[in-house]
Amino acid sequence: MMADDKGEATEVTKSPAGSKLESLSREDLIKFVKKQLLLLQRERTKAEDLQKKLTSALEVTGNKTDDTDEVQELKNQLQTLTDERDEAINAYNTVQCSQEASAIRIQELEKQCLVLEEENVLLQQRFVKLESKNKELIEQLECMEMKDASLKSSLQCMQEEQAQLAKQNKELEVVKSNQEALIADLENSLREIGSLEEEHEILKHKLALAENCIEELKAALKNKEVDALQESSTEEQLMCKVEELRKHSENLFTENEQLKIDLASKIAELSKIRRHAEVETLSEHLTEKQEKQISKEGVSEVSDSESLISELRVQLQIALDQLKELSSQKEAMKDFWSKNKQKNQTLAVQMKMCQNSSPEECCARQDIHNDDTNSKDESAEDLVKMAELKANLQLTIVERQKLFEELAHLREVHETAAFELAELQQEHDSLKTEADQLRGQLGEWEHLMDMVKRERDSLATELETTESHEDHFRQELELIMNSMHEALAERDSLQDEVFRMTEKDGVWQLLVHRSLMDEITQMKSMTTGIIAERDRLQAELDSIMAAKGESSVKAEVLACKLQDMQTAFDNLEREKESTTVLLQLAQEKESQMIEELAASQEKIHSLETSLQEKQNELNELHREQGEIRQREEAAKAQVKTTLEQLEDRKNYTIELEEQVFELSNSLTEAKKRCGNLREQFEAAMQDKSESIEFSHEIEDLHSQKAELEQQLEKKMAEFLTLQKELSDKTKLVEQVEERCTELVKDLEKERKQIAIEREGLKEGEAEIIAKFQELQQELGERHQHLEKGEGHTKGAAAADDRHAVGHQAGNGVQDGKF
After folding, report:
1. Are the C-beta atoms of 781 and 422 separated by less than 8 Å?
2. Would you call 749 helix, strand, or coil by DSSP?
């Protein structure tokens, strides 16, 4: 029975140990082995005590051989004591196992608490960083709101200015329509001049015919010298006619002089009109530029723009007054041209009448040749007058040619002015499109500001929730730590009570054992509750970490958006500077623009050289990046080798675990041997030599146990060194990877910056070239437009002259007939 009870006890101690060894980790296994060695040492001390008692009992039995009954009682007491001791040992083993399990769990909980505390510290640090970032974001948002308010105020000012400019544009359109009407009138006058030129050619032809008739008349007059006296009366009439023709020629000469003066004044007026048109277009251009500058430079330049607008309005009023004066002068010119046209028509009629009447007069003179001898003197005077008229006509032809040349020059000037007007209109349209684009960009910025505000509010709420969660978790962690400290205190008290139990009687041991078992069950329930609470807290902590990660991602997104907005504002500043430069370029002359273009080309060349240098630096950085990647690959290979070494070490630790299992088996065997020693203890009471052998065996077992402990300590030291090496190498690999990522990010930032600068330079160069081409095109169009206007004015003037000459000629013939 005793052997069976002991075998059951060993089985009880063996089965939980086997299941325990399968579920324990390496460190816990080492601790378990150490505790088992302590138990063996305690059992060894107990065996030595029993051996001493046995020797004392043997001495007592040697002295008292006759007291067999007392010996039997002592044996029975010894048997009961051994049974009680076995039960106490079993109970102690169970209590020790439960205490070890609770101690292991408590250690795990302590580790987890330490990890949670570290994570809590990290979370607090992150929270502080997030608070600082949040403050920065709030400051940036306040700055953006201030900028938004300033932009809104500038937008309102721009809208008001735009309304005023729209009114001014309407007024300018009215003025432009008046100018177009004036230009149409000028073209009509030029057409009339062309018709007058045609009539002048006809008059030239008729003049040639008249000269032929005059030659015939000269021949006839030679024959009519005899009849000069008879024709004295007719000669007086012809003298009157010649005098009238001379007066008409003088009038024509004065009218031509007046036409010259009028044409010169007209040229001056056209130049004034062209200048005023340029002023008007420049005023439009300047107002548009000012609108753009106001949208970019802000409220600070509104006063300057208003002063410029007032000056331009004054100039515009002056131009309108001058246009009114020109319209009145135009009406006066129309009246003058109508009068000249009537005079020319009368002259043409008189010339026709002279041409038609010259052969009739020849016939009449031939008929009256025998009657009138005085006509010879009259015909001679008539020839003199005709020569004077011919000279006057030649002078008028030369003067008309000069006037045509001046009109051609005026046409060229008009065409150049029209070309400049077209170019300025194109610039006006482009500035309007740019203003619309800026309004769209402002709308986008307002939308972005609203998005940033909403995201800021959401981040603030999320931060408040995370703060409340963190406070709650801190309180729960404090409660867990307090409960863990209480559990540790109870564990220590239980250990003290267990050690005290070994010194008391068996009954007290059973009572204490029961109470300990109850407390152990309570401890188990408490530890299970603590583990469940810890799992729950870990899950909540994971959720909080995920929420914090999302909030950090949102904060990074906001930072990126703010950076994009900052770059957009920088781009706007650059655009503002470029617009000011373009305004200055538009106000300068073509030569200055060519010089600035050359300077900009030199600047572009220098920037291209700097860009090439940047490209070389980028290539150098790429090369360094390749070297870093090679180093990283070498480090990865080294890490791979270390991982292989770690795998070998893991295999070695597995072998150590197997050895530990073997040690545990040897411990169980030692326990079995102890049981056998206990069974053989009674026989040892009779045979002292066998007890000595058992003591030697126990000493051998203790020596083996010490050797195994030394081996375990060596293996553990090797394992710890391997872990340290692995952690150092993993840290080194992480540092290398972080360095590589930082270098790659820096390279990407530099490349993007270089690309932005390059695009800005290309855009600036393209804008300068486009402005230069537009100015050239504007000058060409103005030249063409002026040439067309001069052609029309020349045609109209020639037509008027022809009509006036024909009218005067008709009047002269009628007077002669009369």
Report:
1. yes
2. helix
**Can you give the residue ranges of every domain in the chain?**
159-453+782-817
Q: Which residues pair with 30 in a beta bridge?
A: none
- pLDDT at residue number 633: 74
**How many Å apart are CA 688 and CA 755, to the nearest integer?**
100
Q: For residue 799, what are the CA distances in angstroms to 198, 260, 274, 357, 728?
A: 7, 16, 26, 25, 106
State how far the alpha carbon of 620 is from the alpha carbons of 401, 625, 748, in Å. Answer: 75, 8, 14
Q: Residue 142 and residue 148: Cα distance in Å, rounded?
A: 9
DSSP-derived 3-state class of residue 228 = strand
Of 108, 114, 124, nearest to 477 by C-alpha is 114
Cα 668 from chain centroid (whole Å): 75
Task: Evaluate whether 167 touches 367 at the Cβ level (below 8 Å).
Answer: no
User: CA 126 to CA 138: how far, in whole Å?
Assistant: 18
* Cα–Cα distance, 716 to 722 (Å, whole number): 10
Query: Tens of pLDDT along 574-613?
Result: 766 666 666 566 566 555 655 665 665 676 666 666 666 7
Bridge partners of 416, per DSSP, are 783
CB-based burial label for 728 (10 Å; 0-12, 13-18, 19+): exposed
Cα first-last separation, the chain: 184
Tokens of 729: 């190498």
Residue 368, SS3 per DSSP: coil
Mention every residue, 6+ apart, whose C-beta is less than 8 A from residue 510: 87, 91
Q: What are phi and psi of 789, to 5 degrees?
A: -65, -40
Cβ(646)–Cβ(726) below 8 Å: yes
CA distance 130 to 462: 11
* Residue owning tokens 């709650």: 472
β-partners of residue 806 are 348
Q: What is the pLDDT of residue 359?
A: 42
Query: How far, in Å, are 97, 114, 799 from residue 107 at the CA level?
Result: 15, 10, 121
Question: Which portions of the chain are predicted below pLDDT 50?
Answer: 1-19, 64, 290, 294-295, 298-302, 305, 355, 357-370, 372-376, 378-379, 505, 507, 793-794, 796-799, 803-818
- Measure Cα distances from 616 to 536, 593, 613, 619, 754 in Å: 57, 34, 5, 5, 12
Contact indicator for 246, 385 with CB cutoff of 8 Å: yes
Closest by CA position to 340, among listed 710, 802, 23:
802
Q: How far is C-alpha 434 from the geometric centre of its chain's CA atoms?
A: 19
The 10 Å Cβ neighbour count of residue 48 is 12
Give the DSSP letter of residue 720.
H
Query: What does the alpha-carbon distance between residue 570 and residue 543 come to, in Å, rounded to a whole number?
Result: 40
Locate 79 and state its tokens.
């048997």
The rounded Cα 369 to chain-centroid distance in angstroms is 108
Taking Cα atoms as reference points, which of 685, 674, 687 lies closest to residue 47?
674
Distances (CA, A) of 608 to 602, 611, 772: 10, 5, 22
Sequence-distant (≥ 6) Cβ neighbours of residue 798 within 8 angstroms:
192, 193, 194, 195, 196, 197, 198, 199, 200, 400, 404
By C-alpha distance, which of 404, 406, 408, 397 is closest to 253?
Answer: 397
pLDDT at site 384? 64
CB 733 within 8 A of CB 631: no
Report CA Rg, the chain. Answer: 62
**Max CA distance (Å), the chain:** 224
pTM strictly above 0.70: no
